[in-house]
Amino acid sequence: MRIIVLGAGHVGRAIVEALYADHDITVIDTDPERLQALADRYDVRVVEGNGTTKRVIAEAGIMDCALFIASTSREEANLVSAMLVKKLSRAMVVVRTTSVEYLDAWREREIDVDFMVSSELETANAIGGLIGIPAARQTDVFADGQVQIVEFDVPANATVIGQPLSTASLPKDSKVVSIIRGEKMRHPSGQERIEANDRIVVIGSPSAARQWSRVISDEQERVDDIVIFGAGQMGTTIARVLMDRGIRVRFVEGRAERAREVAEELPNARVFHASAFDPEFFQRERIGKATAAVFALNDDPGNLFSAVLAKTHGVKLTIALAHDQSSIDVYEKGGVDVAINPRQVIAEELVRFGHDPRIRQIAMLDHDRFEILDLTVREESELAGTRYDDLPKTGSVIGAIIRDGTPIFPHGDDILKAGDRVIVFVESRRASLVERVL
Amino acid sequence: MRVKTGIDIGSALDLVGGVLKWLAPAFLAPVVVAIGYGEPFWAFLVAGVITGLTGLALDQITGDKQGAAVTPRESFLVVALIWLFVPIFGALPYVLDGGPQLNRPIDAYFEAVSGFTATGATLVPHIEELARSMLFWRQLSHWLGGMGIIVLAVAILPRLRIGGRQLLQSELAGPTEIEQLGDTIRSTARRLWRLYVVLTLVAIGVLMFLSVTNIDDVMTPFDAVGQALSVVALGGFSTRTVSIAAFAPITQYAILVFMVIAGINFLRLYRFFVQRRVDVLLKDEELRLYLALILIGTTLIAIEVIGGGHAHGEAGVRHSLFQATAILTTTGFATADYALWGPLATVTLLLLMFSGASAGSTGGGIKIVRHLMLFRLVRRELEQTVHREAIVPVRVNRRVVDEKALRSAIVFVLLYLLTFAAGALLLIAAARRAGEALTAFDAFGAAAACLGNVGPAFGFAGPYGSFAPFSDLSTWICTVLMWLGRVEIIPVVVVLTRAYWRS
Question: For the structural domain made of A225-345, what CATH number should be given?
């Protein structure tokens, strides 16, 4: 498939990285250096110029391209070029936006593009999911929230350790799809046992996911007080998602003007104009009593510093945004509980358009070693009509089947049918194989 | 040599002239009444001609100002001047008629200011002795001043298409955002007046019905029209010496309802009645506080009235409710001589004088929304003493009130209290000089009632009495207080600053 990506920034780069192996990609950007860096690393064509002009889009080969992804950080540029492409060609057009308002307008069909995705909203939803499941390392929801996938690190004192999975009392409506022990990954059978320091991946219903959280760690704290550091676009979007769930949100923002704006915008949030690095402020406002803190400052070192400070004041769950993929490891070394890269999140969203068109959603785990696919079984699939236990073990597990709108978490005797929507956990390198056989 | 100032005085005077020109035809109404009752009418005719000629003259002197805009700076001067000048012409019929109660210019001017500012304080001890046409003119002056001659000017003067917004903003009582009801400021002003006229007609209709069906056998059709003109303007002049006490309880209830309605922000009323937006009233925090204050006031007064044996049962509740509403909305009607009630009632009434009606209503006083803003401000200050870094925007009706609006509310309330203090002190000093028996409480009452455009105060200036016993000096003090109250002090203070006149 011919794909044009507008923007060679972090998001554009992540898209290229995920798609260049299987597709012909052309990248448009105004900055020759960024294009050069991209071309040096990946096998892509680059076009230098303003992507909002007809000339440049035509030069990039819009006429015979199937997918156009506008991924720059400038909304208006994305929209203008998307409109142009929509007029000039029949390519599917996907637009990245930071504005929830544009997103709403798109949903109301007032903006004529095929898909619109917002890194802010995706990240906010991811964090919202995490906060519901405090023990999770990473989580994602599928099928309109009916299926949740969660990655846990199993602590030494967890109650599930040592028992065979078939006999252990585990939450209903859920499956352990993978146990990662060191560098090795296993797709567990009933006899498998979970050991301390394993990393496990569970697919289940949202309530099962919450029960798993309790199985993994017995801290039963109800999450109701979240402090968000940094009240930018990202921070406020996260706050909105959390407040929609009835969670109390406190903001810490260093810029007076922005703090005032947010206080006016979100009447139910408490906004502080204070430094995220001020221990006395933490003390005064009892930041340590918060059940979780989200660090959405503009720079990664700031996020790390503030998160460590929060940790020392007693915050249980610290979630920090990483603007740079390389920061994630540093965060983890520094004791940050969860690191999220918004650009990675949005890249995941955008990458799915380059996959099999049946795929509705894709998520990546563990530095892209694993993917979770959400796709529909074809009529002519060789596996349709197969018993669950008889499915080939090719480095992939079907974690959930959505049949007639209701999720099934399959076991031995369940039979896969054509037309089923399946949530598949798969090693990234085998993803295309799964797409082929299903 | 012409003195150079930053103010276009010509433009301001031109506008005053324009308003006077349009005021002139209003004098025809009492002429019609006079003819109807067989009373002399030449006083109104002459007054009308003088007003019209003065207006034309001002227009001529200042030359062609069609293109000149009234900037916010001039609008302060215009507002201050209009409320000063209009009563001068409004007082002409009283003087020209030469009746025994109002023939002295100072007395006539007091009565006219009290009329146009919709205050309702009177110098006439025996109201019924005035001619019908004269009584009608008093009531009509309330009605003209209630919604505001300036709002009317914005609605009809073509040249106010430019600058009308500032003028309307500085004219409409209290801090109210001119949510444009129409596409233009002119059509907004027109709609406000249309609503005012319709409300008046409904009030006339209801009271007239009570009168002609003899449900109230005391009230004549003349009384019905008179009270209606007064109540929608939240004025307070009555065609009877004993005010509303002269009429049957059912009439008192009817008037009570109209007072409550006229005390609501007209912009909201318009949205409610015409655009059928129920939510603008249901969710209005100012309206809630307004009704709550009426209820609290009523309860406190009822304790005194019923407990003190001044009235019993239904009458006790009615008097308390009516009086609390009449004073809070700054109308100044009375169904009983509340000046005779005990201290719990009189102190409550004195405090209610400082409440005022809603912003954008026809009432005076500090206005409910300012109290609301200050209350929220206090709450924020207290919150910030605990959470030093917290940023807490002050909200009214879920909308953020900007710091400038908060500051001007504080400044207004301060100036208001300062003016009240100065007024009370001056009244006491003047009383001492003239040897009047004015108690401290009555001085406070008179100052608050004039500044708040309430009308009757306590003691001899109570609801059944009049301001006639005051010396001329005291009368002047009261006149200035009424004027300041109507223009909401700030335009006058601004005009008096040196910076205002510098370019």
Answer: 3.40.50.720
pLDDT at A200: 87
Q: Per-residue pLDDT averaged across B322-334, rounded?
A: 95
Picking from B391, B397, B398 by the largest number of A CB atoms within 10 A of its own CB, the best residue to mutate is: B391
Nearest residue, CB atoms, B390 vs list A264, A267, A272 = A272
What pLDDT sits at residue B1? 39
d(CA A300, CA A287): 20
**CB of A280 within 8 Å of any CB in chain B?**
no
DSSP 8-state assignment for residue A224 = -
- Asked if pLDDT for residue B365 goes beyond 60, the answer is yes
Q: Does the structure show a pLDDT above 90 at B277?
A: no
- Cα–Cα distance for residue pair A125/A245, rounded to 1 Å: 11
- Degrees (nearest 5) of the Cα angle B430, B432, B437? 105
**Would you give the distance in Å from CA B446 to the centre of its chain?**
15
Nearest-by-CA chain B residue for A256: B391
Interface size A-B, in CB pairs within 8 Å, comes to 28
> What CATH number labels A2-113?
3.40.50.720
More confident residue, A419 or B234: B234
Q: Chain A residue with minimal CA distance to B383?
A: A270
Ranges of each domain in chain A: 2-113, 225-345, 354-437
Flag if A270 and B388 touch (Cβ within 8 Å).
no
Q: pLDDT confidence of B380, banded at 50, 70, 90?
A: very high
What does the pLDDT look like over B143-187, one tens digit per residue?
999 887 778 777 777 777 667 777 777 777 666 666 667 778 888
Strands A174-181, A45-48: parallel, antiparallel or unpaired by DSSP? unpaired
Burial (CB < 10 A; 0-12, 13-18, 19+), residue B66, is: exposed
Residues of B in contact with A248 (CB under 8 A): none
The per-residue pLDDT for range A90-107, each reduced to its tens digit, is: 888 989 888 878 888 888
B453-501, pLDDT tens digit by residue? 999 999 889 898 899 999 999 999 999 999 999 988 988 998 898 888 8
Which residue in A249, A264, A289 has the most chain B C-beta atoms within 10 A of its own C-beta, making it the best mutation to test that interface?
Answer: A264
Q: Percentages helix, strand, coil for chain A, rounded to the nearest 5?
A: 35, 30, 35
- What ipTM does the predicted assembly reach? 0.77
B400 at the A interface (CB within 8 A)? yes
Task: Kindly determine whether residue B400 and residue A284, on different chains, have CB atoms separated by under 8 Å.
Answer: no
CB contact under 8 A, A274 and B393: no
Topology annotation, domain A354-437: Alpha-Beta Plaits (3.30.70)
Structure tokens given for A236: 């406020």
* Beta-sheet pairing, B390-391 with A270-273: antiparallel
| Same-fold call for A2-113 versus A225-345 | yes
Rounded mean pLDDT, B79-92: 92
Please tell me the number of Cα atoms within 13 Å of A244 on its side-chain side.
11
User: Does residue B258 carry a pLDDT above 50?
Assistant: yes
- Report yes or no: B358 and B368 within 8 Å, Cβ to Cβ: yes
Q: How far apart are CA A97 and CA B481, in angstroms?
A: 59
Whether chain B has a CB inside 8 Å of the CB on A285: the answer is yes
Looking up tokens 């920090």 gives A320
Alpha helix stretches (DSSP H) within A97-201: 100-107, 119-132
The 10s digit of each residue's pLDDT in A143-190 is 767 788 888 888 877 777 888 887 777 888 888 888 888 777 777 777
**Would you say residue A357 has pLDDT above 90?**
no
Instruction: With CB atoms and an 8 Å threshold, state whether B389 touches A273.
Output: yes
Cβ–Cβ below 8 Å for A274 and B389: yes
Instruction: Select the residue from A252, A284, A286 to test the B interface by mutation, using most B Cβ atoms within 10 A.
Output: A284
Angle at which helix B313-328 crosses helix B249-262, to 10 degrees, equals: 30
